[in-house]
Amino acid sequence: MGEKDLIHLKQLLLKKRREIFDRLRGLESDWQALSERDIEREEEAQKMDLASLFDQLEELDRQELDDIELALTKIVNVTYGICEKCRKPVTLERLEVLPATRFCRKCAFKMEEKQKKPAILP
Length: 122
Ligand SMILES: [Zn+2]
Fold this sequence. Notes:
Blueprint: H1 3-36, H2 43-77, H3 92-97, H4 105-115
Helix pairs in contact: 1-2
This protein binds zinc ion (ZN).
């Protein structure tokens, strides 16, 4: 991978990280606004749903943040863009779409097959 690509991907990662931070902050203030409101009895159930939705979103975002941090560390350690499973380079096309990915397309596909979830491509 060329230095230019690496710089570009690093910028993508930093941008993503900022977006997640902003989103998490937004969620927090939404949640606060909701909690501060007088809640009617019938809204109670709705509030519960929303709470679990926030939890799920936060969980996903925090996972992604972890992956981004890891990717940024890998850039420093010059191990970025290498699949953690088969140690082969991850294609640039894949990194463009998923800059924080830890696995090449093949390995990611295999793992997702095991989890019986729809595969995320590329
Ligand atoms: Zn692999």
